Amino acid sequence: LRLDISPSANPDTTVEANFGLADLSYIYDPAPQLPADWLRVGGTPSWRSVITFRVPRMIGGSPAICGAVGCQFDVTTADLNLAEFVLTSRLTEAPFEPSDTTQMDIRPVLEPERMPKSPLGDPLGSQATTLPPAIFAERAGSQVALTVTGLIRGILESEGDGDLPLSTIALLNSTEPGRFGFASFEGLGAAGAPTLRLVLTLAGQVGLP
């Protein structure tokens, strides 16, 4: 903040003085549109996005696993090496593009039936995911991989032979509220919808149906 000051003792003199700001407020109109079919994380006030999913027990095997005829195999019988949620960034509205890196956490929702007031578990990663601001501007459409191996391993170890249980996760800024800008990701139905990527090791041969 720069001020031009005229001292009372010498009103004919103008002095330029610079001051730091103790606080900062943003005034904007109109407000950003609500994310109807996409995901938003961060901003002020801080947004969170929640994803509910179910890992399929049976998935189609590749030709390397099954041969030319293809097959289905039970993912709970495989060894899980890596599990990642893959998100695709999208263009954030110009006034709300992040001005700096976004630190994003992914946490399990412990009581989904109590949303939006459900408690959250500890972050699934050892550290927050750092997102550069460019992926929500000129590099929109970039992929972001979030490691969830521990969560998915616990799901695959669930007892029973039926469907695997539903799980719910929340995407949020690691420090809330964060900066004024927010991160944007494609939602369900879009070309870059969230996907779950599994890296598995199969023991022995997969039988044909």
What does this molecule look like?
There is one protein chain. This protein is mainly beta. It has helices at 63-66, 149-156; strands at residues 2-5, 15-18, 38-42, 49-54, 58-60, 72-74, 79-88, 102-108, 129-131, 143-147, 166-173, 182-186, 195-201. The strands form 5 sheets. It has a 4-stranded antiparallel sheet, with no helix packed on it. It is elongated. The protein starts with a strand and ends in an 8-residue tail after the last strand. The mean pLDDT is 85.
User: How would you sum up the global shape?
Assistant: elongated
Strand percentage lies at 25-35%
The helical percent reads under 10%
- Cα gyration radius (Å): 24 Å
Average pLDDT = 85
Biggest β-sheet strands, sense, barrel: 4 strands, antiparallel
Distance between the termini: 73 Å
Order of strands, main sheet, comes to 4-11-8-9
Order of helices and strands: EEEEEHEEEEEHEEE
SSE class:
mainly beta
Helix run count: 2
User: Unreliable stretches, pLDDT < 50, 5 or more residues?
Assistant: none
Count of β-strands: 13
